[in-house]
Design brief:
About 45% of the residues lie in helices and about 15% in strands. The chain folds into five domains: about 200 residues, Rossmann fold, CATH 3.40.50; about 80 residues, Arc Repressor Mutant, subunit A; about 160 residues, P-loop containing nucleotide triphosphate hydrolases (Rossmann fold, 3-Layer(aba) Sandwich), CATH 3.40.50.300; about 160 residues, PCRA, domain 4 (Orthogonal Bundle), CATH 1.10.486.10; about 45 residues. The radius of gyration is 29 Å and the shape is globular. The strands form five sheets. Strands 11, 12, 13, 14, 15, 16, 17 and 18 form an eight-stranded mixed beta sheet that branches. With about 775 residues, the chain is α/β, with parallel strands linked by helices. The relative contact order is 0.09. Strand 2, helix 3 and strand 3 form a beta-alpha-beta unit. The protein binds a DNA duplex (15 and 10 nucleotides) through helix 4, helix 9, helix 19, helix 26 and helix 27.
Length: about 775
DNA sequence: GAATAATAATTTTTT
DNA sequence: ATTATTATTC
């Protein structure tokens, strides 16, 4: 009896394949990680492959860590020598060693999307681009797509000839790359592109890694972009000791779970793998070990609506299981409250524990309301993603100090902290320094050091020099042998008086902010303790840039987890709540109204498939008729994906708050209170005329309504009117109490004129103003 | 020239 | 609702 006997026939074939390209099409829950780890073990144990020669690429650090751990459990030795890491970490590791070939310094900084945006803002200002027409975000995405396709700024320029807009893009792209280099910084895409550039520039570097990585494995292959594929191809093109090109490349993926097209994922990497490698062997894993029959069938039915997929039929030996639950709520607050109550009850009755539950949604913004309800119920939870810890102001400030000390060329970081805490250095001074830096072709920080020689900076120069000395002193500490990053952080906080400054600002959430600084400190300490040898500052900054929230999700925490559908890929939970199943939310408004809705909706559908297939035992779907989004009330119809699940697999659950407020659950006491909060106050929103126009967004379903449930009314039935008229007294959230002096019918909305007395007379649209009638 | 108050703008998904 | 930018005050 060997460990390989637990594998099914197809899995076994995949595991025992040793030489040559291999494509594993692995459906959801078909044990693909198991196959990968067993294959690594098999190669080591039975084929005498040196773990040193194995490279396994994943997309998240979590997946990488898990893979290493699982190999360790099987083999018991040598797993630390396998190179298992994410694409991005792999590239950083290579570049830290070789990037000087490309003219960068080895201490380069990695820019996250916030940094990118800041840089782009500067560029738009510099190139006098009107950001009303060309948004920073869209410019960045143009650049990102170019990089994904390995198009250089020069090439982009060539292709742009004669096209004004593209010409502009080319200029921005060029300037962006120029500034990254000047700051000795790389963005995420650069990590991949520069590694390829390195391999094309240095035969020595390429040969070294080709020789080392004799066996390459790629997880989530459907998410690779053109650049990543090129990188894999370059590495897999090496020769072995006998001078043979074996292409020992094993890729695992599922075209139905390709959900990163927006990030450049190229579906043809998986669809055309056999064309690229004609000798490739293809193995399909179609047995699902995760979900019940009903859940799997629901998933299959939904995904069957997509065209142009690789043919496959996922099946399972698991039990029939519970039907899929669908509940339609009136409001998002009900949805959240109800789901949270259900979880509390299940845990109370010891049917399950907190960690068995996941709440999944399309956008991060949806997490807020759940958090609210979970706190009230005292349920332990973890939200993955939403407000990234490293995006907090305090953290960014302190990290910028670290970056400034580690890489003085990173002007973005220097500019961020030069006046934090306030040193009396304002915009005008910064502009002058910047101008001097550009004129003399030096970095911003270098210009600060020469502040005394900058014309027009008499008084300001005196304010700059203490800052420069501070950084210089902190810098000199790094060279001490006993130096640690956490000491450095302490010194920064101490020397700048950062915490005192924070306290002086009299912010209401002062304690939270100080706590966050403490959290940063413990993260640094933990990082230093986990490292085998004392890590360098750039090691830590790299960790910060490349470790995502999901990576820290561990199973030993008994908490309910909340995350986006994207983050949930690769995970599984006994009980899954898929909420916000509404047209405009999921599928998203963006996809419905895209230039090419068919394609975009298909991606959303794959995302839905991913969501459904996370569930092992029970799947609960829900939608709300009314939802608050960015301070506005939206009215959405249930998602088309609900309709795609056959009725016999679904139960339509009654909204417990509506049908029977005294339902026999232990939380019945909450209900009357809830309703009273909901009814009169909410009427102002639900009766505004824009509501009916928003509603039409989902009207494609009017002709073909999938629901037998009688349509319920919200609050009152006077939708499309407003409950105040000329001469009425109304209150506005910001302007206070005023008198309605005029109402005009402005198409789908009403333009209301209100006299707020001393505040003045304002004209506003009824749908946005949220006026409340006072009588 | 800098600090502060007021106003405009923004969010789909992520390494 | 939160954050970046602009207008205003000191």
């Amino acid at each position: 009896m060997s460990i390989y006997d637990t594998l099914n026939a197809e899995q076994k074939r995949a595991v025992e394949h040793d030489k040559g390209p291999l494509l594993i099409l692995a459906g959801a829950g078909s044990g693909k990680t198991r196959v990968l780890t067993h294959r690594i073990a098999y190669l080591m144990e039975n084929k005498g492959v040196n773990p040193w020669n194995i490279l396994a690429l994943t997309f998240t650090n979590k997946a990488a860590g898990e893979m290493r751990e699982r190999v360790d459990n099987i083999v018991g030795y040598g797993s630390e020598n396998i190179w298992v890491s994410t694409f991005h970490s792999t590239c950083v590791r290579i570049l830290r060693r070789w990037i000087d070939v490309l003219g960068f310094d080895k201490g380069f900084t990695i820019y996250d999307s916030d940094d990118q945006k800041t840089l782009m803002r500067e560029i738009c200002k510099y190139l006098q681009i009107d950001t009303k027409n060309m948004k920073e975000r869209s410019l960045l995405s143009v650049i990102s797509s170019a990089k994904d396709e390995l198009i250089t700024p020069e090439e982009y320029e060539l292709r742009a000839v004669g096209d004004f807009t593209k010409g502009k893009y080319a200029a921005v792209y060029k300037e962006y790359q120029k500034r990254l280099r000047a700051n000795n910084a790389l963005d995420f895409d650069d990590l991949i592109c520069k590694t390829i550039e390195l391999f094309q520039t240095s035969k020595e570097a390429l040969a070294y890694y080709q020789r080392r990585f004799q066996y390459i494995m790629v997880d989530e292959y459907q998410d690779t972009n053109t650049a990543q594929f090129k990188l894999i191809k370059l590495l897999a093109d090496g020769v072995n000791e006998e001078g043979l090109r074996e292409h020992n490349l094993c890729v695992v993926g599922d075209d139905d779970q390709s959900i990163y097209k927006f990030r450049g994922a190229n579906i043809f990497n998986i669809l055309n793998f056999e064309k690229e490698y004609p000798q490739a062997k293809v193995i399909k894993l179609e047995q699902n070990y995760r979900s019940t029959k009903r859940i799997l069938e629901a998933a299959n039915e939904v995904i069957a609506n997509n065209v142009g997929r690789k043919d496959k039929a996922l099946w399972t030996d698991n039990a029939e299981g519970d039907v899929v639950h669908f509940t339609q709520f009136d409001r998002d607050s009900q949805e959240a409250e109800c789901i949270v109550n259900e979880i509390a009850q299940a845990v109370q009755s010891e049917e399950a524990s907190y960690q068995d539950f996941a709440i999944l949604y399309r956008t991060n913004a949806q997490s807020r309301i759940f958090e609210e309800k979970l706190v009230v119920k005292n349920i332990p939870y973890k939200i993955i993603g939403s407000i990234n810890f490293y995006a907090r102001k305090e953290v960014k400030d302190l990290l910028s100090y670290l970056k400034t000390i580690g890489n003085g060329q990173d002007s973005l970081a220097v500019k961020r902290i030069i006046n934090i805490p306030k040193r009396g250095i304002g915009l005008a001074t910064i502009d002058k320094v910047e101008e001097y830096a550009i004129r003399n072709d030096i970095s911003f920080y270098e210009a600060l050091r020469q502040a005394d020689y900058i014309p027009g900076l008499q008084r300001a120069a005196a304010r700059i020099s203490p800052f420069v000395s501070l950084i210089e002193i902190l810098k000199s500490n790094i060279s001490r042998p006993d130096y640690s990053i956490s000491d450095l952080l302490d010194e920064i906080i101490e020397a700048t008086g950062y915490i005192e400054d924070l306290k002086g600002q009299e912010l209401e959430n002062e304690d939270d902010r100080i706590e966050i600084i403490g959290e940063l400190k413990s993260k640094i300490v933990a990082f230093e303790e986990a490292a085998l040898e004392p890590p360098s500052l750039s090691d830590f900054l790299e960790e910060v840039a490349l470790v995502s929230d999901i990576d820290n999700l561990t199973e030993d925490n008994n908490v309910v987890v909340l995350m986006t559908l994207h983050s949930a890929k690769g995970l599984e939970f006994p009980y899954v709540y898929l909420c916000g199943m509404e047209e405009g939310i999921f599928p998203s408004y963006m996809s419905i109204h895209a230039d090419d809705p068919e394609t975009e909706i298909e991606e959303e559908r794959r995302l839905c498939y991913v969501g459904i297939t996370r569930a092992m035992k029970r799947l609960s779907l829900s939608a709300c008729s009314q939802r608050m989004l960015r301070g506005e009330t939206q009215f959405n119809r249930p998602s088309r994906f609900i309709r795609e699940i056959p009725r016999y697999l679904l139960t339509m659950e009654q909204n417990p708050y509506n049908s029977n407020p005294f339902r026999s659950n232990s939380h019945a006491s909450l209900v009357p209170e809830f309703n009273s909060r909901l009814q009169p106050a909410g009427v102002a929103h639900s009766t505004n005329p824009a509501a009916s126009s928003n509603r039409d967004m989902g009207s494609i379903f009017d002709k073909n309504k999938p629901f037998t449930q009688p349509p319920r009314e919200f609050g009152g039935s006077n939708l499309g009117t407003i409950d105040y008229g000329i001469g009425d007294t109304v209150s506005h959230i910001k302007f206070g109490v005023g008198l309605v002096t005029n109402i005009n019918n402005a198409g789908k909305d009403y333009e209301v004129t209100v006299d707020f007395g001393t505040t003045g007379t304002k004209k506003m649209l009824a749908s946005f103003a949220k006026l409340k009638k006072l009588s």
